[in-house]
Design a protein that fits this description.
alpha/beta, five-stranded parallel β-sheet, binds flavin-adenine dinucleotide
Length: 575
């Protein structure tokens, strides 16, 4: 192996591949040969930061200073950008404020520029790197006999590699779009929503995805104007006087507003270390206890930082804490709360003071992501029921400009939010188009609403094992369904009554199926015997959501690529 180059392929050339490329170059091993396959022409921007996922009105939910380091900082990069591009995004290089969120399309240009810089760095370091655009990977087949992996491109050519890292990112499967008029399975690409709608548009969900859709739709059905106080007002266009948007959500909540983060990269030095986590698991039959993690990586973090808050929560269980935080959201009208949180966040940003408990919840979510596969199924069910819904609301971080637009639309009577509960029924109207939704209000009244236009905005769906795009890996059973073991058989038996499709009995006890495929801590795919594959790695979040419940975007790209590179470095130490 000494003289043979190690052939590494990155499948997909978006942000995950960008971070992985950087990490591979940092290994400084000239004996590697990197090939990156990207189906589009542009590298780096991926889905959210290209036309596939953004129009001019769409912004990042993190500011420039919160973006993990790649080659040059955005602040420095901005100084090198041509005035034509800066003008396009109304940016003045000398007054660039790195504490503000960015246009996603502009950010995409930055990521693309970083990709070019990395390519240049590879040449300087003498590391072979080939970027293949217009190259859609259509299949991947493991070849254990020769310790290689075959990659099929554009359903034609096949290439052999020693390592393959799947970075294919987002995927929004289409079920009805294009077949049922007025039905959109996702708001992406957002250019499709640039339309006049002289009726009420239904939106499923209230996440950042929903807010993306609302921003686009509103712009094409009216106009926002500054009201002199820094806030906005909205006036519907005379062509679409009946324009309105109604968001349908399970509980009737809006996500929380972006504030100032004390640590811009969601890290804390006082979190449990790998060694502590591993020692805890050894004493706990291999399981990580959710209560232990909640105690150490959340509650105890307040002891020094916010004594009052600590005193308030120190005796609370995770369930108590979630209930108390949800209580406020339940009591207040969501738009009233949005306004209050907007004011609180403005203060936080102006004074550069964090809303500490929210920041800690984001850190907990990030910390929980990697060892989540070691929770017991009992704890996984608790986490899915209580903690994750709170986390998804609190750490969505609605940017300030989006907030002002939502408030303006609501004040103009053009935006409403309806809680539909968990038992709502959707009937897709295949003939006349759109959808009918039946639901029960909080007061127990049965209601029905018809939407001629309906956009599913629940966000990136967690995709299942069966949806995996590379057929040979499914057929050859290179991958397996992600499952989590119950600590106690009796709980597994009980859960099987509630979730017969998700709980199965195995030789080591009962297991709960979670979404996506099984991986180990180094993001290597594992087969149904639990054996990891030392040739194939995966960073594509839609397919590993069961074992990685937190979608923290660029932070995830940085962390996961670091873990993969660390493993590769150890493996290739002697090469
Ligand atoms: C709308 C939206 C907004 C977001 N905003 C933020 C944000 O502001 N901040 C943040 O931190 N995170 C954000 N995220 C989270 C986001 O997950 C990451 O920031 C990032 O896009 C993930 O990068 P990726 O490379 O994994 O996926 P993607 O961005 O989806 O990139 C995957 C790339 O692989 C290519 N590809 C796919 N399949 C193939 C194939 N078979 N062959 C070849 N190429 C292929 C695609 O063309 C694409 O270029 C956002 C997510 C969404 C959906």
């Amino acid at each position: 192996m000494e003289n043979k180059k190690i052939r590494i392929a990155l499948i997909g050339g978006g942000p995950a591949a960008l971070f992985m490329f950087k990490r591979l170059l940092e290994l400084g091993n000239r004996n590697i040969e990197i090939t990156i396959f990207e189906k589009k022409e542009q590298f780096g921007a991926g889905m959210p930061y290209s036309r596939e996922g953004a129009n001019e009105e769409h912004i990042t939910n993190v500011s420039a200073n919160e973006i993990p380091h790649i080659v040059t900082s955005i602040k420095d990069w901005v100084q090198t950008v041509s005035s034509d591009i800066l003008d396009l995004f109304s940016i003045e290089a000398e007054r660039f404020n790195e504490y503000k969120v960015l246009s996603r399309l502009f950010f995409g240009q930055y990521l693309s520029g970083q990709f070019d810089l990395l390519h240049g760095l590879a040449k300087e370091k003498g590391i072979a790197a080939e970027l293949k655009s217009g190259s859609e990977v259509t299949d991947i087949q493991d070849k254990p006999g020769t310790s290689e992996v075959s990659v099929e491109v554009n359903a034609q050519a096949n290439y052999l590699f020693d390592k393959v890292i799947i970075c294919t990112g987002h995927n929004w499967p289409k079920r009805y779009e294009g077949k049922v008029p007025g039905y959109f399975d996702s708001p992406y690409p957002p250019s499709k929503l640039r339309q006049g709608f002289n009726h009420t548009v239904g939106i499923k969900g209230a996440s950042l995805t929903a807010i993306d859709a609302i921003r686009t739709i509103a712009r094409h059905n009216g106009i926002f104007t500054e009201d002199g106080t820094g806030m906005l007002s909205f006036k519907a266009s005379s062509d679409t006087p009946d324009f309105k948007v109604v968001m349908h959500t399970r509980h009737g909540f809006l996500p929380a507003v972006r504030f100032h983060l004390e640590d811009s990269h969601l890290k804390s030095n006082s979190l449990l270390t790998e060694e502590e986590l591993s020692a805890h698991r050894q004493e706990n039959d291999g399981f990580l206890s959710l209560d232990y993690l909640f105690e150490k990586d959340f509650k105890e973090q307040f002891k020094d930082k916010d004594e009052d808050f600590y005193a308030r929560i120190k005796d609370m269980t995770m369930e108590d804490f979630v209930a108390s935080m949800m209580e406020l959201r339940e009591e207040l009208d969501p738009f009233q709360l949005l306004k209050a949180e907007y004011i609180q966040a403005e203060k936080s940003i102006k004074r550069q003071e964090s809303v500490y408990w929210k920041e800690m919840l984001a850190i907990l979510s990030f910390a929980l992501n990697y060892p989540a596969k070691y929770l017991s199924a009992e704890d996984t069910l608790r986490m899915q029921k209580t903690l994750l819904p709170l986390i998804s609301l609190v750490i969505a971080f609605i940017p300030q400009t989006s907030c002002r637009e939502l408030l303006a639309l609501h004040a103009a009577g053009r935006l409403e939010l309806v809680a539909v509960g968990t038992d709502s029924e959707e009937r897709v109207e295949k003939e006349k188009g759109g959808i009918t939704i039946r639901y029960t209000t909080d007061d127990g009244d049965a209601k029905s609403a018809y939407y001629k236009t309906y956009v599913d905005c629940v966000g990136q769906p967690h995709l299942n094992y069966e949806d995996f795009p590379f057929r040979s890996m499914l057929e050859d059973k290179t991958i397996s369904v992600a499952t989590i073991r119950f600590k106690e058989d009796v709980n597994g038996q009980e859960a099987q009554q509630d979730y017969p499709d998700r709980v199965t009995k195995h030789s080591d006890g009962y297991r709960l199926s979670v979404s996506g495929i099984a991986i180990n801590d180094n993001f290597q795919v594992t087969d149904s015997y639990g054996a990891f594959n030392d040739r194939i790695y995966i960073m594509a979040v839609p397919y590993i959501g069961g074992y990685n419940p937190d979608y923290s975007g660029l932070d995830f790209c940085e962390e996961a690529s670091g873990r993969i590179a660390k493993w590769l470095a150890e493996e290739y130490q002697s090469v």
